[in-house]
């Protein structure tokens, strides 16, 4: 079977949490680290660390990080409060911050859901282009999972 790569992103159907254990994971959250809805609830249940995330005191456009089971888990801070919606610009800034951490820590691959496109209502057509642009000059492989 051919690898399902499209413009620098690999698309797979399945459970994000079944990705290879060495791959980093990423998703979007708010500065308040509430993670009370959507896939964020599953990240909170799977990896905990809410107090560690809050202690990092990251702001919109930053990326908070946990180290879990020999992998990094990235929390893209795309909005101030859980009740708000992110912007494409805040998502892009968070992705750039994540890419910098990846480079500094030799992260080669990241698995993500369709970030920003569930409860946050951004357009995957636009988000995927932003991801492609941010990671174009890197060797970091991004796998996008959907159910």
UniProtKB/TrEMBL annotation:
UniProt organism field: Paramormyrops kingsleyae
Gene Ontology biological-process annotations: peptidyl-glutamate ADP-deribosylation
This protein's name: O-acyl-ADP-ribose deacylase 1
Pfam family for this entry, one: Macro
Residues covered by the Macro domain: 1-147
